[in-house]
Queue: 4 jobs
Job 1
Amino acid sequence: MHFTSERRLDDAVLEREFTLGGVPGILWTPASASASVSAPVPLVLIGPPPLGLRKSYPRLADRARHAAADGFAAATIELPECGDRPRRPATEQVRADLRRALEAGEPVTDEIIDALILPLVDTSVPEWQTALDALLSLPEIGGPVGYAGGVISIGTRLAAVEPRISAAVLFAGSFVPRAMYEEARRVTIPLHVMLQWDDEGNDRQAALELFDAFGSREKTLHANMGGHTGVPRSAGEEAARFLARHLK
């Protein structure tokens, strides 16, 4: 992990940008963590939307500030083929097929969803695990570890295969390959799933079926009226309380 910049946010949070194996990321730690390495803090992995870290930065930093207020470090990494990371021609073609289907009001086929999401999950999850190795090696970060964000398929697999993650907040709002339902049955950690009921880009029934498939004994579905970007502040606060219960 190579840190490339450092600055303070509101004098309460230390923000450091880094690269790890060519993957950009950002780490936020509360002032208490940077001042004393004798009491390492829990960590929240923030799954970004597929817009690139620069475009998503305001909402990511806001979530990191809330995590720091609870005494947690927070970190995020750039998704494959987002931001300045190189694109594959095959992915660009699938994205074009998706746009055409949506603009024409046609159903998005399983073939398009699989071609778009499964390679993203296959690449992203090992990168998250590598980042977690590096983050937990820092003296100011200990555990436990939580995950919060979307793409929901990335969070699902990460929750299924990564034993260091103790609890997860998952955002329903992205396409779900059929193969993910079987993976969801292997998830056993506490889950808090957020769903926007009128999300124009989300298959509500698929989100409900995925929630039903999760194998966790403790799982909560928090649904609100409104579109993809209309998540009420109260929903974010409830998700933060969920993580606080399981990481403190």
Job 2
Amino acid sequence: MTVTLITGANKGIGFETAKRLLEVGHVVYVGARDVERGEKAAADLGARFVRLDVTDDESVSSALAAIEADEGLLDVLVHNAGVLGDGPVGGPEALRVFDTNAVGIVRVTEAALPLLRRSANPTVVTVSSSAGSFWAVTNPERPEFGLPLALYSASKAAATMLTVQYAKSQPGIKFNALEPGTTATDMTAAFGVGRSPAESAEAVVRLATLGVDGPTGTFQDENGELPW
């Protein structure tokens, strides 16, 4: 059995990723901060629920302790929880966005490392964004060029850099970041664009099911590695 934890998995790309990984035989833990929504999503999927708020150290520690008690290890970790931060820019909002999109990755990764090291094929996938790519946001031919999301973009740049640095410091574990493609989710509803979360989840699933010799330290989309 392959044991997988997905943060922010009660809806959107996280939910669809959980669905697909269950189909290929993973034991999937749906991580969500809202108990009612998380339990419902897990029940709908046939997955397992664990309360996990990536902005709360105690919540993260408790979630990983619960998985350890039940499974003894963790094979795959998908960092999917995130916020858009498209309101007025200020210190409190910047702290909120970075706490979720970047610091949350540190909290969950550090808590998960002991369990990942017990896996024969440990894999971490960060759902990042090319909105955090200098190459993309300075390229007039890319949609990110005109995207007015300073906090989101900066926090996703941090998320990708954290992924690369973890890949360097943890050579026994694969760490890869992903641009999932423009997706129509609750978070992007105001833009009125994007494909279905199920389509974008396929790219997450590909990185979550890499073999032992798969790449690490990369930033990819569905077509392969991206400039960053």
Job 3
Amino acid sequence: MAALATLRRAVGLLNDFRFEQSDPARFYGALARDTRDMVAAFATDDTGLSGAVILDVGGGPGYFADAFREVGAHYLALEPDPAEMHAGGLEHRGTVRGSGQNLPFADDSMDICLSSNVVEHTSRPWEMCDEMLRVTRPGGLTIVSYTLWWGPFGGHEMGLTHYLGGHRAARWYTRRHGHPPKNLFGTSLFPVTAAQGLRWAATARDNADLVAAFPRYLPRWMWWVMRVPVLREVLGTNLVLVLRKR
């Protein structure tokens, strides 16, 4: 993964964030391809993701499906919200409606269990992460990537106003735009931190090894910020946790 984490990639991803609301196909298409490449970087054999059974928890409108299927992976998605599931108008092949806190899959059934930018949208994220580990097979990967609340993107479409409080930011957004934000604080947006994720990874060490913990949208030479407790919350923007199940 370190070889992929270039300044050019970081600039491109951060630029695409501008289109999340106005052109979601552009934003999520780019994010899907980057996610696929990130996951593939941790594959341990020569076949990469070919033939791997991948569960995407919180798959949303389904933009990730084609990116993973292009490399021969067997892609499944889980999404609890039917409105979100159909927001992109895409054909859903292999998407299951269900709860991340109670995954409807057997123990040890997935080669890779992935969650991209979902943790901050659930009130019980670490229960979801425990479930992801449960369904991952021994030797397989659980990969969790999420937006940090104290980073500049923590407020999502509310911008930097979240630094003055999530509820206040939501009220200001509603007053300015005439409707509440899609990511409503306390309902569909929650203040999760890097410290919480690292603490969860530490509690999982009885049955999984932490392979990597890095800031997703920063170039490799800035990964050191994750070693500095307060600084990582602000500059890290998005934390990726990669665990290999024993």
Job 4
Amino acid sequence: MNSEYVLVSRWRVDRGRESLWDVLEALLDTPDPLPWWPSVQVMAYDGDNLDVRASSGLGYSVTFRLANLQAHRPDRLSFTSEGDLRGRGVVTFVELTPGTSAMDIDWRVATDRRWMRWTSWLLRPVFVVGHNIVMRQGEKHLNAWLAAQDG
């Protein structure tokens, strides 16, 4: 039963890398650092640990904590995850053009929910599609939220 996943995404963001960092740092100083991501609900955030529930859109959700956040401005953000998804993640920020950057998200996790581990031999493709849905929605809504902030 292989319950380990390598989940890689690239978000194209309509902000330069420095500007994007400014926005993300400001959001990390609020009670809800993810107001733009409708499928990810912040359950608790204390400035160090971010507890979230992510709804896949496919009839299941996962709950996990992002911890050990380490920011290396302007290049990289790393974290660990605990809960239904256990592992490590790195977000790398790349300037593509002036005013456009990429967030390369590399998240390597294992599922800790019993039913997900037991069914991974069959449902692995569904879990990967669910992750991809959540991530595409995150990219789309982040860009829309940033555009709305600009006025």
